[in-house]
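Sequence in, structure out. Go.
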Amino acid sequence: MNNRNNVQVVNPNVISSSNKLVVLDSTSIFQNSLNYEFFSSFKFGVSKFILKDDTGKELYIWSYQNFKRKGFLKDSEGKEIFSFTIKSVLLGRDFIINKSDSDEQITISLRTSPSFVNMKYEIEFFNKSTSKNEILYVNCKPGYRACTIYYGKKKEGGQLICNFERTHFIPKSVYKIEIVPGVDTIFINTIIYFIQLIQVRLTAKVASKGVNV
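Output:
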């Protein structure tokens, strides 16, 4: 991925047909807003997120195996869409994605931003629609009670493209997600999964006192 100093941040007023967010799958872009639910679990060293639509239909499953240090995205039929590994870097993680139907490799960089109260992240990615490296800005209240994802900085006119929140904690975490039209929904849901995966692994590290995450 290019040096972050060369990233061109786009602050659109709308997600137009000529300026969509296309990162992982152009077929997962829709013309209407969509609502999802994420169900998360962690046991026996495997973290798993199941994505369902607003009718309760299972769509995708993200999983990560701590011992193998490798994760996967599969559809509801068990077909692998991509695998990924995680590289620790200063102030964040790089997620290296390998598409299962091609030789394409995609890097999504997640960096934490300083904040006294909220959890803030910057997500760097290559947008196939604009052929540029761009950044999304994520802001979450403690406990992920309310989170926003902006395409460009909010104070500079960036557009709100996703709201998500954790609605249940026990026995499994449940997240409500809303994504605007014109956005790669697999990409956005993958970002949400990556954010939660980092938190799960950090929690596991503290509990085990020495496991390298």
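Check: The CA atoms of residues 202 and 213 lie 7 Å apart. The helical segments are 185-208.
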